[in-house]
């Protein structure tokens, strides 16, 4: 808000007939170090002498303030629903916004997160086929509390690679 006050003072003193140097001296007495630079005073003094009335900045073209608009959120949602394996950089390219904004839209506005290689909601637990994990009481407790069970082949090396290379070497020592 301070810049509008400064501009108002510059406008008033310019209309009074003061030169930019005189305006600078008077503003330094009143505002001290927070007064605008001599260049700024000259610029605005010239603007006001040529008939400018507004204290506001001129509108500028350029990048929008935010890429997160309702339209972009809808575009991202439609792209994800059309292809659930689409990558964030592909969405960014198609929609014309940055990857960071795509990430923000997916996680904060759509409430999605990546799990199991897909965008989904909920908690997943992966257990091996040990008897304690396959017991009826354990399975019913998991389903009762809303956990999704993923079926997988027993003794799969993808589950615990340490079982297949690290532990046998530890047993030797």
Describe the structure.
- It comes from Loxostege sticticalis.
- The protein is mainly alpha-helical.
- It folds into three domains: 2-49; 70-116, Orthogonal Bundle (Arc Repressor Mutant, subunit A); 125-172, no CATH class.
- It contains nine helices and four strands, in the order H-H-H-H-H-H-E-E-E-H-H-E-H.
- The protein has helices spanning 2-15, 20-31, 38-49, 70-82, 88-95, 99-109, 131-134, 136-144, 162-172; strands at residues 113-115, 118-120, 124-125, 148-149.
- The chain has a two-stranded antiparallel sheet. It has a two-stranded parallel sheet with strand order 3-4.
- A hairpin with a 2-residue loop joins strand 1 (113-115) and strand 2.
Quick summary of this structure?
By secondary structure, this protein is mainly alpha-helical.
Topology:
Blueprint: H1 2-15, H2 20-31, H3 38-49, H4 70-82, H5 88-95, H6 99-109, E1 113-115, E2 118-120, E3 124-125, H7 131-134, H8 136-144, E4 148-149, H9 162-172
Parallel strand pairs: 3-4
Antiparallel strand pairs: 1-2
* Gyration radius over CA: 33 Å
The main sheet comes to: 2 strands, antiparallel
Unreliable spans? none
Strand order in the largest sheet:
1-2
| Number of helical segments with 4 or more residues | 9
Q: What's the multimeric state?
A: single chain
Number of domain modules: 3
Apparent shape: elongated
Task: For the record, give the distance between the C-alpha atoms at the N and C termini, rounded to a whole number.
Answer: 73 Å
Protein name: Mos1 transposase HTH domain-containing protein
Pfam families: HTH_48
InterPro entries: Mos1_HTH (IPR041426), RNaseH_sf (IPR036397), Transposase-MT_Hybrid (IPR052709)
């Amino acid at each position: 808000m301070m810049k509008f006050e400064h501009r108002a003072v510059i406008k008033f003193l310019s209309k009074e007939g003061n030169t930019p140097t005189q305006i600078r001296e008077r503003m330094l007495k009143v505002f001290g170090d927070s007064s605008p630079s001599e260049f700024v005073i000259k610029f605005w003094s010239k603007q006001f002498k040529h008939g400018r009335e507004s204290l506001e900045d001129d509108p500028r073209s350029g990048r929008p303030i935010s890429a997160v608009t309702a339209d972009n959120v809808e575009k991202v949602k439609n792209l994800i629903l059309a292809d659930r394996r689409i990558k964030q950089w592909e969405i960014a390219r198609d929609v014309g916004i940055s990857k960071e904004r795509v990430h923000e839209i997916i996680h904060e506005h759509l409430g999605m997160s990546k799990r199991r290689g897909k965008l989904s909601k909920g908690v997943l637990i992966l257990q091996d086929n040990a008897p304690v994990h396959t017991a009826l009481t354990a399975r019913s407790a998991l389903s009762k509390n809303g956990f999704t069970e993923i079926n997988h082949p027993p003794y799969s090396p993808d589950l615990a690679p340490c079982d297949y290379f690290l532990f046998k070497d530890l047993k030797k020592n």
